[in-house]
Automatic annotation (TrEMBL):
Native organism taxonomy: Eukaryota, Viridiplantae, Streptophyta, Embryophyta, Tracheophyta
Superkingdom per UniProt: Eukaryota
Domain annotation NAF: ranges: 309-333
Swiss-Prot/TrEMBL cofactor(s): Mn(2+)
Reaction catalysis annotation: L-seryl-[protein] + ATP = O-phospho-L-seryl-[protein] + ADP + H(+); L-threonyl-[protein] + ATP = O-phospho-L-threonyl-[protein] + ADP + H(+)
Biased composition (Basic and acidic residues): 275-291
SUPFAM superfamilies tied to this protein: Protein kinase-like (PK-like) (SSF56112)
Record-linked SMART domains: S_TKc (SM00220)
Region (Disordered): 274-311
Enzyme Commission code(s) on record: 2.7.11.1
Residues covered by the Protein kinase domain: 12-266
UniProt-listed InterPro entries: Kinase-like_dom_sf (IPR011009), NAF/FISL_domain (IPR018451), NAF_dom (IPR004041), Prot_kinase_dom (IPR000719), Protein_kinase_ATP_BS (IPR017441), Ser/Thr_kinase_AS (IPR008271)
Protein name: non-specific serine/threonine protein kinase
Amino acid sequence: MENKPRVLTQKYELGRLLGQGTFAKVYYARSIRTNQSVAVKAIDKEKVLRVGLVDQIKREISVMRLVKHPNIVQLYEVLATRSKIFFVLEYAKGGELFNKVAKGKLKEDVARMYFQQLINAVDFCHSRGVYHRDIKPENLLLDENENLKISDFGLSALAECKRQDGLLHTTCGTPAYVAPEVINRKGYDGAKADIWSCGVVLYVLLAGYLPFHDSNLMELYRKIGKAEFKCPSWFPPEVRRLLCRILDPNPATRISMAKIKESAWFRKGLNSKQSKSETEARDIAAPDRDGSGPSGNSNISSEPKEELTNPPSLNAFDIISLSAGFDLSGLFEEDCRKQEARFTSVQPASVIIAKLEDMARRLKLKVKKKDCGLLRMEGLEEGRKGHLSIDAEIFEITPNFHLVELKKSNGDTMEYQQLLNENIRPVLQDIVWIWQGEREQQTQQQQLQEVSS
Ligand code: AMP
């Protein structure tokens, strides 16, 4: 098995082992079609099922597909066999950031650059409602250009498993990066807990050692609970102040992401050009149209056997029926993430346009343009990525049968999707004959019921 190349669903050639955890092994792999390097994380379904975290993992995989950012390891696709799930991930060639720190503390400017990248990525995920909850050295990787890449965003359920498994000492090592409220197992705010962990990372980058350290686990917990740490003499006063605000044991008074980003130390070296490229990166990072990864195929596919060579291809329903107790149906969220939404209508164009204008009024959207069957509507308030702008294009099939396409032309994709699903769809209900995708979904649901009955 080690000598001849192993092939995963005829798409990826698996190479050497990059790393190993309790539930997963990470391999280097190459896309057969594009030759692009990827990392494949193989997770043992049996082990995941045994600790009862299936639902949480399903949910987290789907959120992970939503967070695309230059400093986050991207999830390209999910594949499955009878006993394993494979995450096909962006390959971080530079290995773990902390291999660098192991050789000694970093220069202030270098540490600041990694911290800026870390904070930007974590803040981006928070804006999407995704919390890492397990930011630690093993999860901070570097690409070939020395850019930080956070791995395992959205997969923290697996880390949680480690704890529930009672394997804290052997698999988690030390809780050195975990916020006091998480240790105390009080209900906690994911954002504030991540901020604490980022503070520990910053300390380690600048000091070369941990802020909280003790060979006795109870003593370590005590120190974390009281935020008992000392800054080495070479820490500049600005860093000390920032760290005291981040490593505040009370999550309610702990500094927010916004305030960290405003702090003078954080902002040093960030000029307006950089901020712009960061914004542009975010735009690139918005969920792509077809979600395709390096294999050019975005979906969940599978193979039935453990041998990874030339397996017959199975579709999603096959995986579900094969994977008793592991229903992956929650992952089929591709359609609702697409930027365009289309519906057919049996109304004349004039009625459709009047309805769209009425909708714009109700949803406080300004009609910016109206010609040749195109209606451009714009949000009055600025969103995360500027004003939301939506185009509605009407195509005549017969005078009383039209296809209407709604498309985001500017603004934040999540804001657009929320508006589309919560407001636009219900408001347009009386002129819609059928939304594209609805039929297929109905048929799939019927098939699913048949498969499972
Ligand atoms: P994990 O189980 O995610 O902690 O991964 C175990 C180890 O595999 C990590 O500490 C890395 O050294 C390596 N690894 C994980 N993901 C990647 C990736 N996307 N690219 C390169 N190496 C990775």
